[in-house]
Specification:
The complex is a heterodimer. In chain A, 56% of the residues lie in helices and 17% in strands. Chain A is built from twelve helices and 13 strands. In chain B, a hairpin with a 2-residue loop joins strand 1 and strand 2. The chains are: A alpha+beta, B mainly alpha.
Chain lengths: 514, 160
């Protein structure tokens, strides 16, 4: 097939020139790219690829152009001698470009890693620059925040009404807040770790309680609301709720236990008082029921006995027997009356009296009939106590019972202190009757207001005096409390709500006293 | 101990060198070897460009127009290599095509098997610059795009 060579020649010549031109344009672009970011390995990679292509373009295109020129000018023999070199260089350039190209994946991975590291470095660098520039401000700010935070938690520690305690795992006290100092009877400042002889374990009434708490914390890392009894430095027992948690710290040596100890002694006393009041109320209801049932038959017995006495001669044996029956029936009625008083079943009369006058009457009566010669009576009446609307007879009966009890407790000689107080804010009047007698044993304190409870020998007391007094005071909307210490004496505190003579009686708030 | 072992080996190698007959260790390269090396270089180029296309796509770099153009460049280089390989194969390796220059601007092409299709295939394959020039053109466009990207952002390698 005979065909024109011209198209091939034109394409070959122009193509060769264009290859050189474009390959060098590419090289120029990639150089600009590399100059913009010399650390970028991708640009370096492309630079080498383009360099290889440019070399290839030169070797190939120059060869082609030279060939065409030599062939057209009739110097084919010269071309034949050059041709092997041109072909060999072309082959080498292929291999070079292809070899460089094959490294793309590896170069790309390196580029990604470098980019990542560079970004991380830039981030760190920015942070460092920022820190350098703002270090002082940041330190000041953080110090302020830290001081504020420290102050806040310090205040919580210091002003807490509950005891906050930090100990070592063995119980050695590290830090104790003021409430804890007060509870345990320490005089501030609180014991510090330097005084390692202070151990929380020593304040437990029962050592087993401490062992139990410690074991629980070791097992669970915390304990919640364990009710135990502690004793303060004076030996006084306090019932508390102990919560604690283990802070393991950075190492075992730094481990501490943080305790929160809540004093529930007052709450328990109030609960006991409420329980006591409930018990007395129940007994009162029972007594009232029985008294009502007995009172009527006793009235009939007494009535018929008196009728029979009227028909008998006064010196006869039957008369004496009937008199004995009458006397005992009256005793029974008296007891029933007392029971009814205790049960508050009868409505008190409303007399306008002054408490100190009622007290003076009672003291005078006792002085006359029982004698107070060997007892020093100290009276302290507050003049501000106003007139009150009370059942005079019953209030006097209360005073009588309490003073007679005090006289009995004092025995051969001692002091009796009587005082009145008025609290306009609380709206009540307080009467205190204190004796320097032998005191009441703790085990009996909870029972002294129980009907028929007495420590006196059989026949000397019915055990109704305090229970009747309790009933009368409660019937007036008041409260009666007792404080006693063995060997030092007893104080009865009567709290009566202030009822103005000009107003209707009402129940006032009843306060609780130790 | 090791000294004696190495001394023994040294003696052994020395003896072999002295006793050995003369050998023509350097192999002679006749004319076809250059052609085969050239053809293998074309194949290596094809593989290399294929690998480049694979990684450009695997790394999703072709989402960026710059790298997409570079991918096209690699594709045209593959086509050009195939073209050149075919011309070398027909004309020199298999020698199924015979060319004679009749005058300055005319050539006579004959095929051993008298196949016109083979003649035309050879004739058009001779226009290989129609493949390699576009390849470089695409490479140029690709690099230009990458350069533009780097001018507008900190990194123009991936973003499209």
């Amino acid at each position: 097939m005979i065909i024109s060579f011209l198209p091939i020649w034109i394409v070959d010549m122009i193509g060769s020139i264009l290859m050189i031109v474009f390959s060098f344009l590419c090289l120029s672009l990639v150089r600009r790219l590399r100059n913009r970011d010399q650390g970028n390995v991708i640009w370096t990679y492309l630079f080498w690829v383009c360099l290889g292509l440019a070399a290839f373009a030169i070797s190939r295109s120059a060869g082609h152009i030279l060939k065409q020129i030599l062939v057209l000018s009739g110097h084919e023999a010269v071309w034949s001698s050059i041709r092997p070199f041109s072909g060999a260089i072309n082959s080498l350039m292929f291999v070079f470009v292809a070899s460089v190209t094959l490294f793309f994946e590896r170069i790309w991975k390196i580029y990604r890693q470098i980019s990542k590291d560079k970004q991380a470095l830039e981030t760190v660098s920015d942070e460092l620059r920022f820190l350098n520039q703002n270090l002082e401000n940041l330190v000041a700010e953080r110090t302020q925040e830290l001081a504020s935070s420290e102050h806040k938690y310090r205040r919580i520690f210091e002003v807490s009404r509950d005891m906050i305690l930090v100990t070592q795992p063995d119980g050695t006290i590290i830090n104790l807040n003021p409430a804890g100092c007060k509870l345990l009877g320490y005089k501030e400042p609180a014991p510090s770790v330097s005084s390692s002889d202070n151990s929380f374990a020593d304040f437990f009434v029962k050592a087993s309680d401490w062992r139990r708490i410690r074991k629980t914390i070791e097992q669970q890392s915390f304990i919640s609301n364990a009710e135990v009894s502690l004793k303060d430095t004076d030996g006084k027992q306090i019932r508390v709720l102990v919560s604690g948690s283990l802070d393991k710290g950075f190492s075992d040596r730094d481990a501490t236990i943080h305790f929160l100890v809540k004093d529930i002694e007052q709450r328990r006393i109030i609960e006991e008082q409420i329980a006591q009041a409930d018990k007395l109320a129940s007994i009162g209801q029972l007594s009232a029921g029985i008294a009502h049932e007995i009172n009527n038959p006793l009235g009939i017995i007494l009535g018929y006995t008196q009728l029979l006495i009227r028909n008998e001669k006064s010196n006869s044996e039957k008369f004496d027997d009937l008199k004995t029956i009458e006397k005992h029936v009256r005793n029974c009625k008296s007891i029933v009356e007392d029971l009814l008083n205790f049960a508050r079943s009868s409505k008190p009369n409303e007399d306008v009296i002054r408490l100190e006058e009622a007290m003076e009457d009672v003291l005078h009566f006792i002085q006359q009939h029982a004698g107070l010669d060997n007892i020093s009576v100290e009276k302290n009446y507050e003049s501000a106590v106003p007139e009150m609307r009370l059942d005079e007879k019953k209030i006097k009966q209360v005073f009588m019972n309490l003073i007679m009890n005090a006289k009995h407790a004092i025995g051969k000689g001692g002091n009796l202190a009587i005082s009145t107080g008025y609290s306009p804010d609380e709206g009540n009047v307080v009467v205190k009757i204190s004796d320097s007698g032998h005191g009441i044993e703790k085990k009996n304190l909870a029972r002294i207001f129980d009907p028929f409870f007495t420590t006196k020998p059989t026949g000397e007391g019915t055990g109704l005096g305090l229970s009747v007094s309790y009933g009368i005071i409660k019937n007036h909307g008041g409260d009666i409390l007792v404080e006693s210490e063995i060997g030092k004496g007893t104080t009865f505190i009567i709290v009566l709500p202030l009822v103005s003579p000009h107003s209707r009686p009402k129940h006032a708030k009843i306060n609780s006293y130790n | 101990m090791s000294f004696y072992r190495y001394r023994q080996k040294t003696w052994l190698i020395g003896a072999m060198l002295l006793i050995a007959e003369p050998a023509f260790a350097t192999q002679a390269h006749s004319a076809p070897e250059g052609l085969y090396a050239h053809q293998l270089a074309h194949i290596f180029f094809i593989i290399s460009m294929g690998v480049l296309i694979y990684w450009l796509r695997a790394r999703q770099l072709v989402q960026s127009s710059g790298w997409r153009y570079i991918q096209y460049a690699a594709l045209f280089f593959i086509l050009w290599n195939l073209d050149a390989f075919t011309v070398h194969l027909l004309e020199e390796q298999l020698a199924v095509i015979d060319i004679h220059r009749i005058n300055l601007w005319q050539i006579n092409i004959t095929a051993n098997n008298h196949s016109n299709a083979l003649l035309w295939l050879y004739y058009f394959a001779k226009f290989d610059h129609l493949l390699c020039v576009p390849a470089l053109l695409f490479l140029y466009f690709g690099l230009r795009r990458l350069l533009k990207k780097t001018e507008t952002s900190t990194s123009g390698l991936v973003s499209s």
